Amino acid sequence: MARLREDGGVSVVTSKSIVDAISLVEIFGLEYLWVDALCIIQDDDEDRKTQIANMDVVFTCAVLTIVSAAGSDANGGLPGIFPGSRPIT
């Protein structure tokens, strides 16, 4: 995650799901990660409209699509990324 702090990177990420996604991308040896919540200016209607109109390009060029479906918010994480993060039943 050190590269996130380079120019143009993110200085603080508090969402467990985003931190887990960053870790997964690093595990796979990939270089880039698109996170809607970070890459689309959420309180700018024009930016949201522009970005959403181009999501087909984002998904077409994606090597991998990660969907965080655990939990009820952005802190649900990606169960199984780290040891002990998924209960074994």
From TrEMBL:
Pfam families: HET. It comes from the Eukaryota. Residues 14-80 form the Heterokaryon incompatibility domain. This is Heterokaryon incompatibility domain-containing protein. It comes from Physcomitrium patens (Spreading-leaved earth moss).
